[in-house]
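G., the chain you wanted modeled:
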Amino acid sequence: MGKIAGLMEAVDQEETPLQKRLDQLGKWLVFSCLLICALVVTTGILRGEPVYQMFLAGVSLAVAAIPEGLPAIVTVALAVGVQKMVKRQSIIRKLPAVETLGCATVICSDKTGTLTRNEMTVRQIYCEGSLFQVAGEGYEPKGELIRDGKKIPWPKEGALSSLLQASALCNNAFLKRNGQDIGGLFRSRKAVSWEINGDPTDGALLVLAGKANYWREVLERTQPRLLEIPFESQRKLMTVVVGSKSCCYAFVKGAPDVLFQLCTRVEMKGRTIPLSEDWKKVLEQENEKMGAQALRVLGVAFRQLPPGLSQSELQEQAEKDLTFLGLVGMIDPPRPEAIKAIRVCREGGIKPVMITGDHQITARAIAREMGFPLPQNSILTGTELDFLTDNQLAARVEQVSVYARVSPQHKLRIVKALKEKGHVVAMTGDGVNDAPALKEADIGVAMGGTGTEVTKEASDMVLADDNFATIIAAVEEGRAIYDNIRKFIRYLLSCNVGEVLTMFLASLVGLPLPLLPMQILWVNLVTDGLPAMALGVDNPDPDLMERRPRAPGESIFAHGLSKRIINRGMQIGLGTILVFSLAYYFSDGDLVLSRTMAFTTLVFSQLFHVFECKSERHSLFKVGVFSNPYLVVAVVISTLMQLAAIYLPPLQSLFKTVSLSGFHWGIILAVAGGRTLVSAIDYYIMSPLNRRILYLRH
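Predicted structure as tokens:
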């Protein structure tokens, strides 16, 4: 426990990609806005405008230009993402974790329970040179024993009987029926549902013994447990000593390759013979055959211990000079949704990595069945990993898709190696030993069902259903949130550029101020509030999971976002100046009317623009104008607020506005909504027409 605590303390907490980008964006915005506002104020004063009025205009413009609502909108977007994730069986413990998952490039997942159903069922037994098939489904203790295609009775003596008894005695699981522990003969009755309380591997062995009517509670009445050496991932063995001081037996189960080294004899054809190298090769071949069928294989052995041994002597002698009984092959079916999730993962440019304690051959068979990429040198075992230095591991980590026979301690090295290569890593875990790796990973994912409290505390996200597909759902949500953050940054900054340009260009060409300080603040309130907030919870693009992950160091303005912001901001600013100039010229210098029209043009240009920001890759009309009802409601409310500022007498005197006629509205809507109208004509008329012409030519 001390070592684990030390490893967790040694892991530094890093800022998430989102935190880093927003920090950079904030510094850039403050500097840019203050510089431009200072230019506007200086230009106005040099032109002879009153210093006090220009000071107020500069302060108002600075307030409007800096998107102070950005942190609140980011928090709301993340919080809504968390709510959505809860509905998809994922509990987010840290808000930025959702976005970080969106740029994950590697997802390292445990096999058992996450990629598979965690419902072990014994399918084969190799004992005394014969291969047996075991019938039955799930955890119900009913099923036939089959050899050479024929049903045979379950044995009551011999090596196979000893193997079945060992399966029951060397076990800490409990079989439940309808949620209650049922003992002995009562378990044979028909039940509605069966489940296991304990390790699924132990559960599979307990059910196997139950099918032969061997029950641990019954066996322990005559052979009580004297000692247990629990399973550890380093040893890959579990041992119990049962019986009495005058006559006791050690039963051992574990990884066959480890168990072979501890055995000196083997039960074969009704007699005990020395375990020669030839017999070891036979057993290893059978082990590999089972593994190639995606079966998890356990070896079972025993020995009779001398009478009168103390506890320490029992522990010392229990795993020596063993007699090998046989191999048990069990299957843990893959989750169908996990197979689909791995395909989505690969299509989205994310590398899935499977981590398992199974044999290399078993791991390869399961990985192939689930759709993992398996090029040459794609499987690395724990033993091989121990011989690699950190630099050698980092050199190989890009090629490896499956880690077999690894322990939780290896996970920390795997995470560090992947991060060293520039990956954003998500790592799953459930045991106490997994906690350091989860804390080191960019996203630590704990299991809600089987995970320990220590692991959950170290994690960023907890899977309520322990399902790999839930991680992919979280990745999708993370990508959608980041897209939405880019959407409202695009919207806010385009609008702010338009506001700043309106004031700056007017000062530059010698026009009167097109907006009063109060009007600037009102524009900021009407357009930067509800519409931007609604854009933060917009629906994702349909092809979201077909894109490659973002590079960890990618700028928030990547993929031409800065050009879009500047271009649209210039259009908004120039359009507002155009309307102001026309109104000022044709109204013979009516400044109140001109400012009202410029004021309204600026607001409606931004309200039209908010719909354009719904997607960076698709037309507004493809994603749907009304696909986000929150945005529609927000725009309606903002429109009503602007109309109130123009037509209600109390607000007219406050904002220095006048009522507008239909002719005025025609000019305003043509300038503010002209781009949207052109897009509609292109989508509904020109694009179908071009496709029709192309079709006729071919």
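The mean pLDDT is 86.

Shout if anything looks off.
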